[in-house]
Design brief:
Mean pLDDT: 96
Radius of gyration: 20 Å
Shape: globular
Distance between the termini: 49 Å
Strand content: 15-25%
CATH superfamily of the largest domain: Rhodanese-like domain
Strand order of the largest sheet: 4-1-3-2-5
CATH topology of the largest domain: Oxidized Rhodanese, domain 1
Order of helices and strands: EHEEHEEEHEHEHEHEHEEEEEHH
Number of strands: 15
CATH class of the largest domain: Alpha Beta
Helix content: 25-40%
Structural class: alpha/beta
Length: 297
């Protein structure tokens, strides 16, 4: 039985004093030995932490004792140990950076929240109907290692690139049913709100994200191909409990792989998928240019 857990959580709610809340959370986490990343802003809280089960349970109890977070859902994964090297608690303008050019407030307006079962049914419809579109609400490299079958791959490296991408690529989709998903749900709160403000009429999101979908005993992760990219030391985790497919392709040779590395050159650190052979052949570099520049340096 695992003695550690990984928590994923967020809540859009007004925070009067983000600095005070951040200080309080940091003190609690350090006292309990929790590690991870927490972002606090006036619009709410967003975080993921790992720790011993008793300590993560105490963390959840402490947050739920605050009326602002009394109903905040937590996604919980078992782990063999810490999945973060350290703790970072920061105050930011947004709890997930979007920089929208339209007024987006997830506390007031987002797309329809679909349960895993309802989302699975909608996915099946999307596979046979041009009137239903599945949009991956994550970054391109997350899509590349795993995604829902038939989903559109966004050509974005960061979440804040979405507004421009939507304007350039989704013109004419306003009257289609748009299904969105992301890792834990937070990005879709802003993404669906933006789509509604931009004139899209029928917008929905996977409630709780792929993490919740993977744990649902009814859908069992079906129709998700590959692995789910996560922002901790695990890098990828399984989703589909019935089919184990590899969709990731080596950046260098195109061979199937689910292994991510950062380019060995400190000035680059480009994260990319790489097979075992190419990792050895390239020495951990993403390109011959980076290898040559390190030799010159």
């Amino acid at each position: 039985m695992s003695t550690y857990q990984v928590l994923l959580f967020y809540q859009f709610v007004h925070v009067e004093s983000p600095i005070a809340l951040a200080d309080e959370l940091e003190r609690f986490c350090r006292q309990r030995g929790l590690r991870g990343r927490i972002i606090v802003a006036e619009e709410g809280i967003n975080g993921t932490v790992s720790g011993r089960t008793a300590d993560t349970a105490a963390f959840m109890d402490a947050l739920r004792a605050d009326k602002r977070f009394a109903t905040m859902p937590f996604k919980v994964d078992a782990a063999d140990g810490h999945v973060f090297p350290r703790l970072r608690v920061r105050v930011r303008p947004e709890i997930v950076t979007f920089r929208s050019d339209l007024p987006v407030n997830p506390a007031r307006r987002t797309g329809e929240h679909l349960s895993p079962a309802a989302f699975h049914a909608a996915l099946e419809e999307a596979l046979v109907s041009d009137d239903v579109v599945v949009l991956d609400g994550r970054n391109d490299y997350e899509y590349d290692v795993g995604h829902f079958r038939g989903a559109i791959r966004p050509d974005v490296r960061t979440f804040r690139d979405f507004p421009a991408w939507i304007r350039e690529h989704l013109d004419g989709y306003q009257n289609k049913r748009i299904l969105t998903y992301c890792t834990g749900g937070i990005r879709c709160e802003k993404l669906t709100g933006y789509l509604l403000e931009a004139g899209f009429h029928d917008v929905a999101q996977l409630d709780g994200g792929v993490v919740t979908y993977a744990q649902d005993p009814q859908v069992r992760g079906r129709l998700f191909d590959g692995k789910l990219y996560v922002f901790d030391e695990r890098i990828v985790i399984p989703v589909n409990q019935e089919e184990d497919t590899i969709v990731g392709r080596c950046f260098h040779c195109g061979a199937p792989t689910e292994q991510f590395i950062n380019c060995r050159r400190d000035a680059c650190h480009f994260q990319h998928l790489v097979c075992t052979d190419c990792r050895a052949r390239m020495g951990g570099y993403c390109s011959e240019d980076c290898r040559s520049l390190d030799r010159v340096g």
